[in-house]
Structure formats: C-alpha cells, structure tokens
Amino acid sequence: MKKIKYLVISVLLIISCSKNLQNQLNNFGGITMKAKEKYKELLNRDFAISKEDEDLQNIFNNFVYGEVYNHGNLEPKLRELITLVSLTASDGNNMIAEHVEAALNVGARAIEIKEALYQCAPYVGFPKVFTVLEEANKIFKDKNIKLPLKSQATVNEETRFEKGLSVQTNIFGNIILDMHKNAPENLKHIQNYLSAMCFGDFYTREGLDLKTRELLTFIMLISLGGAEPQATSHAKANISMGNDKDILIEAVTQCIPYIGYPRTLNAITIINGIN
Asked: Into how many domains does the chain fold?
C-alpha cells in the first residue's frame, strides 16, 4: 500500500511540475492566454507559429493580440479597417489577407473593406493598393464573395471636380478656394488634381461615410511617415468631422506594431498640437 501511495504522490508531483513548467514556458517566451483568446475570437483558429523565428513571433503576437487589441474601445470593425490601411501604407502586404479575414469575421462588409483600401490610393500611390487588393480578393473568393463588387462611384468626368471641391471645402473650409485662387500658374493643375481626383474620385464614393474616410486618411498619412504637414491638416479635419483626440489616439495606438514608435510619437505630437 505504501508503494502505491508513494507512486500516486510521485505522479501528482510530476503533473504539478509539468503544469509549473508549462506556466514558466508561457511566462518566458510563449503565447499568452489573452493573445490566444483574442486571435481565436478574430480568426476562429489557433496561432500557427514558425519555429525559425518563434521568439519574435511570440513577442509580436503577444503585443498585438494580447495588449493592443485589448486596449481602448474602438469598434472591432473600425479597428480592422484602421489596421488594413496602416498595413497598406507601411508595406505590410504579407499581413493583409489575415486582417481582411478578421474584418469580415467581425462584421465588416466586403464593400467597406474595398473602399478603405481604395481610399489609400491618392495618399500612398496606386501600386501599393493594387498589390494589397490582390490579397484581399483572394480572401473574398475563398469566402464565396462574388466579384466584382457593385461600383460605389457617384461622379463622372463632368462632375468630379465640382463635387470633389464641394467635399474638400466642407472638410477644410474656404481655405481651399484661396489655395485654388492663389496657386502659381505652373501649380494650378496640382490643386485641380487634388479636388477632382483625390476628393472627387474617392471622397464622394459610397460605402464609407466621410467621418470614417477622414480617420482612415489620417492613419494612412502617419503610417507613411514623412507626411507630417499633411497629417497635421487631416488631424484638424478629423476634429471638424467629429473624430475627437481620444479616437485619434486610439487609432494611432492600433498601428504601433506596424509603424513603430518614431512614427507613433510623431502622430501623438500632431494630435496634441491640435487647438
């Protein structure tokens, strides 16, 4: 009986040690439970970790899904749209597919995802957008979402400048009219392009409201880096559209893993400088 008793105690000790060892592994370099739960909530599956760079992936996943995604009160759909445009601007193409899938899982419509990506074009350039759309379209097809989606355009060649200028002045005020009036002759075409293409072709589209488009635009600009003057203008525009400083800070926080701290701190400086 004593032998059986000691055997049982030994087994219990081994189990206890194993659990302690597992807890230590979780505490030192493993994936936290909070990160695992958030990832599964978003993507309905467990992490797939490559052994080649396991430590870095664990740090990344714990920070993204254990901390950043559990911070603040951003609506899940908006959080994913913010992530998608930040990744587009910062060349995070290899992460696009996963976040398109997550966006769909938390309730974003395919048209909202497409419009968020389209909105990037005049700010980050068309090549980047075409590249990420290839990844997004693969997910849409996997999810049996019929392509092409319905066009969200509301302007034509005759109306794009007028309607674009109207949206532009609605957001930024009559300073836009002064910029057109006072532009040197050799730069007037730039002002015309901004009104007709950037605002006429994109801001007038359906699928996303202006408040969301302006928030996403600010995120694209701070994710690019080197566009602080434009980011400052759009930070102020966000306030006029109803996105307060707290929302801007929450949106920037979501981007930290993709843009790093220098661009994050530059963005915070811009937000804090808004009167």
From this structure: 1
